[in-house]
């Protein structure tokens, strides 16, 4: 049964810098150590974008140094804070499709995993560069991978949620072509679950009848009030990663708040 570890919104910065007083490298390092200790048997670690806060080369180099410490194999896609060409320059082993987008297919015995590149840039013009887009070429790639999945259920991994999540500011910069996306996905009928990041909250539910999970950042989180119009507002709340496990009847999805997790249990 395939076991996946899911990281998102790492927001690495150059050494000596912080985000709202937090060091993204320190928080990520704790998460990587936690995975290596308790989930070294995972089949894949998948990182769903916003790798570097400013998309600068120094941050990507620093991030690569941390991610190289993972015991399970690593697969990465990018988000709205990233720059595709700088990421590929540093992560030279990153897998791209035939058009240079950071997306790939990973087949396991019990599922097909598709990593999607939803970066709406260049040009990096606000607000479009922070919203998500699957252009015609990327949609055609997705169409082919869904078509050739055979009998395997498909798991989609993308930075931008393809639907509203209830947060006013973040919903303004979700995937812009969600109707076309869901029309394509529903036509094939083989997507079991959609995974995303971007919102920096733990969110689950379904859209158009397809279950989804959104995970918190490994650094800073989105404040809870739904009506906040500013998508940049952040709070210091514990970091987390996701765990997805395929079963005989579907998929189980967990959130590990690794900074506050306790392994020393007592009878209640």
Written description of the protein model:
The protein is α/β, with parallel strands linked by helices and 268 residues long. 22% of the residues lie in helices and 20% in strands. It has six helices and eleven strands. It has helices at 24-38, 57-67, 84-90, 136-147, 168-171, 178-188, and strands at residues 3-7, 44-48, 74-77, 104-107, 112-115, 154-157, 191-196, 203-207, 210-214, 241-246, 251-256. The strands form two sheets. It has a six-stranded mixed beta sheet, covered by helices on one side. The chain has a five-stranded mixed beta sheet with strand order 3-2-1-10-11, with no helix packed on it. Helix 2 (57-67) packs across helix 3 and helix 4 (136-147) packs parallel to helix 6 (178-188). The longest helix is centred in the N-terminal third of the chain and has 15 residues, at 24-38. The radius of gyration is 17 Å and the shape is globular. The model has no long low-confidence stretch (mean pLDDT 96).
Helix-and-strand structural type: alpha/beta
**Total beta strand runs:** 11
* Quaternary status: single chain
Strand/helix succession: EHEHEHEEHEHHEEEEE
Contiguous runs where pLDDT drops below 50 for at least 5 residues = none
Q: How many DSSP helices?
A: 6
The end-to-end distance, rounded to whole angstroms, is: 31 Å
Q: What amount of the residues lies in strands? A: 15-25%
Q: Order of strands across the widest beta sheet? A: 4-5-6-7-9-8
| Overall pLDDT score | 96
Instruction: Based on Cα principal axes, name the global outline.
Output: globular
**Secondary structure: helix percent:** 10-25%
Q: Radius of gyration from the CA trace?
A: 17 Å
Biggest pleated sheet: 6 strands, mixed
């Amino acid at each position: 049964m395939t076991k996946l570890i899911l990281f998102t919104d790492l927001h690495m910065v150059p050494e000596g810098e912080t985000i709202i007083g937090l060091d993204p490298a320190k928080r990520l390092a704790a998460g990587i150590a936690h995975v290596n200790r308790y989930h070294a048997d995972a089949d894949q670690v998948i990182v769903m974008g916003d790798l570097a806060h400013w998309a600068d080369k120094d941050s990507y180099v620093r991030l690569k140094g941390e991610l190289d410490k993972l015991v399970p194999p690593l697969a990465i896609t990018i988000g709205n804070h990233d720059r595709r060409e700088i990421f590929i320059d540093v992560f030279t082993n990153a897998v791209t499709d035939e058009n240079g987008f950071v997306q790939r297919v990973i087949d396991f015995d019990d599922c097909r995993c598709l990593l999607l590149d939803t970066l709406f840039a260049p040009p990096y013009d606000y607000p479009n560069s922070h919203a998500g887009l699957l252009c015609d070429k990327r949609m055609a790639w997705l169409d082919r991978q869904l078509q050739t999945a055979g009998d395997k259920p498909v798991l989609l991994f993308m930075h931008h949620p393809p639907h509203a999540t209830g947060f006013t500011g973040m919903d303004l910069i979700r995937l812009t072509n969600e109707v076309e996306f869901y029309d394509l996905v529903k036509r094939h009928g083989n997507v079991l679950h959609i995974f995303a990041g971007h919102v920096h909250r733990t969110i689950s539910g379904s859209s158009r009848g397809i279950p989804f999970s959104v995970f918190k950042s490994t650094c800073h989180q989105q404040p809870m009030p739904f009506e906040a119009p500013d998508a940049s507002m952040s709070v210091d709340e514990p970091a987390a990663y996701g765990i997805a496990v395929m079963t005989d009847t579907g998929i189980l999805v967990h959130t590990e708040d690794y900074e506050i997790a306790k392994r020393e249990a007592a009878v209640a």
